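G., before I forget:
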Amino acid sequence: MGVSFVRTVIVFLLLIVSIRIMGKRQLGELEPLELVVAVLISNLASQPLQDTGTPLIYGVVPVLTLLACQLVISAISVKSSRFRRVVSGKPSILIDNGVIVQSEMKKCRLSVDELYVELRINGITDISQVRHAILETDGTLSVLPYAKFSPATPEELGVAAPDDGLPVSVITEGRIMRENMRLLGKDEKWLEAQLRKRGARSAREVYLLTVDASGNIYYAKKEGVS
Amino acid sequence: MKKELFAGLLLAVLLALSVWNTASIKSLCGSIGDLVDRSAQAAAREDWEESRALLDRAMELWKSRQGYTGIVLRHTDIETLTGDFYELAEHIYTRDAPAANAASALVREHLASITKMESLNWESIF
């Protein structure tokens, strides 16, 4: 048990260091800490399941150790930016004011082709449109185009854009969500009227009915209901 | 903050349990090894009654802790040691002193191996 505990801590720290050295491009949208825990937990948990001669504690102790280490390291990371930089690294500016920062590209071991792939994923085909491109600590690329290439907002266009808020489900697969109705300030009478208006005899005939803050209703009848 | 406190506490508990487990296994194997040693010495003197009594005590102690050892030790280690005990018992019951001596050495060797594996040292960790 003690050996499992110490081994887990050593392997955990070793993997964090290795993944930090490997660089951000290996991460795939996970922070180094999250990636290490995800990789280790799946393997550790399966070992006692496959071999019944191995006590369950040989899987439980390392998993609990990892969980605790992850929580402790996350907590320290939140408190100390220096520690966070050590564990997660810092974002890399790959394009600064439209200029590719070649030294940073080399440091991140990223080729121009790979940068283009990431830009295309972000909807950009012309590198000259990009003011800043930042490789985040989880390996994703944030792209900030020049203002003249950014999509115009309703505010810039001087158009009023109604904010409909988040649609709330009132009926889901035939079930009435009474708590949601209460939040919307609607009652059964209102619901009955809405159903009648749409030709439904009861909530059971409805697949989905949502209402947003502006009162817009989305209605979908169950398939096969006449 | 509660989560972080829980994590710190969990790490401390796991560490404490690990240290306790190491000491507990060492103590258990030490006690059993001591009884086996004394049983082997009695067998060498051909004091078979004493040898049997000491071995029975050692086996009882081993079996009485199987609820615990079953959780913390690999089942193959438990089975091997239990088998070694029965082999030693066979030689003591048939009053075969040289074979009993060899079998008791095997039991002690397995006990030492279990203690070593559960101890926190460079060898067991790496």
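The domain at 27-125 of chain B is CATH 1.20.120 (Four Helix Bundle (Hemerythrin (Met), subunit A)). Chain B has a mean pLDDT of 90.

More on Monday.
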